[in-house]
Specification:
The chain is of the alpha/beta class and 505 residues long. Helices cover 28% and strands 18% of the residues. InterPro entries: DUF604.
Length: 505
């Protein structure tokens, strides 16, 4: 009946078209008929009927007309059913955190999570292996859930990390909660510190309706070689878009059975993501911190990318001298709250009068060298840290420069102390940096002005947004000092024709 109705409708349209055609071009038709007769007329009629039938796109079952391999599959809606259009900006409420933890480790590691977790603002859960022994559960912490029993995978669990399967399934179990308006699933460990404001803005760059797996590699060559350069290291954190999480949910438990010997949960995740056909999108602000000792050198020469996370904090020294780890992180987060995108962003300038090179890591440190060094040298981190593992290959995924006791090469270091707005009427904030270590240092040469005459460094800068790809590093300039033992510096956007040129001696 549907086919008859379709043909009838098209014949009616054909009749109307022919009538219109005949009225307008009757003169031409008479000539055609006189010369070629009704044969040509019937040919035109049949051709017109075929054209109209095809152009109307009848809804015949596709399998009756074409083989299945020639047909385009119907597009499925890969978006979260609760998502808005990509043009709607991603906000903190669109992110669901999944923190892999343990009831045994939470007592010591929970304070790291409490540093950045904001109740009634951030969303997510800590996933534990058993009910916690600490009651009542702190209101400052994320709500906890108990991971599902993974005994059904015992025959497939040959992982060196015995709880790898449970930790990997935190992503699946977070997705299965079916919470509304989730665009991104962000996974981390119970000793991961996230810088949430920056994380929100970085994820907002990406279309959450597409398949994204975003994270970072290890700082260690050995770790990347042992696992994968295409893997987001789980302790540093990684983000999975809703469509990718949905695709993974269909295959995840079967995928786990296919990868029985991988070391950790993050390698299982990466292997399953690869089966979906997605590769890692790298963001340098995720930090696994597969390093030992003092990472001050790395934080003072951070990549030109927003700081997103820090991990393995129990394996490194406190990031500010003279403090506990938690105290030091609170100080860094205080700077972050004042101007999140600018945290750890490096600027370089020169004090020509004193012949100083100055490197600023906003919100963390200021290094003053008694010698002129080019920017390409100062952007290489000082190797204040040790490798995660000793090996015969290169240790780090980035260049380093050695520490030196030579006063011409060793910087005088000032660490972040405080931040405040300059005035309610201008878009300027002031950060203050003070010396927190032994500042006895020899002069580089007899005519050299010593940096230890400076008690504090004051930095004036504007509030910033995330710097888009293709942006330049900000410029800085030394200002006339307002105090005897104070150095003041302004950080600003570089002028179009400006370059960070060091003075020739």
């Amino acid at each position: 009946m549907a086919l008859q109705r379709l043909v009838g409708d098209n014949l009616s349209k054909l009749g109307e078209s022919i009538a219109h055609f005949s009225a307008k071009f009757s003169g031409y038709l008479s000539v055609i008929f006189s010369k070629f007769g009704w044969f040509l007329f019937h040919a035109v009629l049949v051709a017109g009927l075929v054209y109209l039938l095809l152009s109307s796109q009848p809804s015949f079952p596709s399998s009756q007309c074409f083989p299945s391999w020639m047909l385009t599959r119907e597009r499925t809606n890969s978006r979260s059913p609760f998502s808005n259009n990509f043009r709607s900006p991603t906000k903190i409420g669109h992110i669901l955190f999944g923190i892999a933890g343990s009831s045994k480790t939470w007592r010591n590691r929970g304070p790291y999570i409490d540093l950045w977790w904001e109740p009634n603002k951030t969303r997510g859960h800590v996933w534990l292996d058993s009910p916690p022994t600490k009651y009542p559960w702190p209101s400052s912490s994320p709500p906890f859930r108990i991971s599902e029993n993974t005994a059904i995978f015992n025959g497939y669990n040959k992982h060196e990390m015995p709880f790898a399967i449970r930790m990997a399934r935190v992503l699946l179990e977070s997705f299965n909660l079916g919470l509304s308006d989730v665009r991104w699933f962000v996974m981390g460990d119970d000793d991961t510190v996230f810088f949430v404001d920056n994380l929100v803005k970085v994820l907002a760059k990406y279309d959450h309706n597409k398949y994204f797996y975003i994270g970072g590699n290890s700082e260690s060559v050995v770790q990347n070689m042992a696992h994968s350069y295409d893997m987001a290291f789980g302790g540093g954190g990684y983000a999975v878009s809703y469509p990718l999480a949905k695709a993974l949910s269909r295959i995840f438990d079967d995928c786990i059975r296919r990868y029985q010997t991988l070391y950790g949960s993050d390698h299982i995740i990466q292997s399953c993501v690869a089966e979906v056909g997605v590769r890692l999108t790298k963001e340098p602000g995720f930090h696994q911190i597969d390093l030992l000792g003092d990472i001050y050198g790395l934080l003072s020469a951070h990549p030109m990318s927003p700081l997103l996370s820090l991990h393995h904090l129990d394996y490194i020294a406190p990031i500010f001298p003279g403090m506990t780890r938690i105290q030091a992180l609170k100080v860094l987060l205080k700077a972050s709250k004042a101007n999140p995108p600018q945290l750890l962003q490096q600027s370089i300038c020169y004090h020509k009068e004193h012949n100083w090179s100055i490197s600023v890591s906003w919100g963390y440190s200021v290094q003053i060298y008694q010698k002129i060094y080019p920017p390409g040298f100062l952007t290489i981190p000082l190797q204040t840290f040790k490798p995660w593992r000793k090996s015969g290959v290169l240790s780090f995924m980035f260049n380093t420069r050695p520490l030196s006791t030579d006063p011409c090469e060793k910087p005088t270091v000032f660490f972040f102390d405080s931040v405040k707005p300059v005035s309610p009427f201008v878009n300027l904030i002031e950060t203050v940096y003070v010396g927190r270590e032994d500042r006895s240092i020899s002069a580089c040469n007899l005519n050299q002005s010593l940096p230890n005459i400076v008690d504090e460094v004051r930095i004036f800068s504007e509030l910033q947004d995330i710097r888009v790809a293709g942006s330049r590093r900000q410029c800085c300039e030394v200002l006339p000092s307002s105090g005897m033992n104070v150095t003041e510096i302004r950080i600003r956007e570089c002028l179009d024709d400006e370059n960070v040129a060091f003075p020739l001696l």
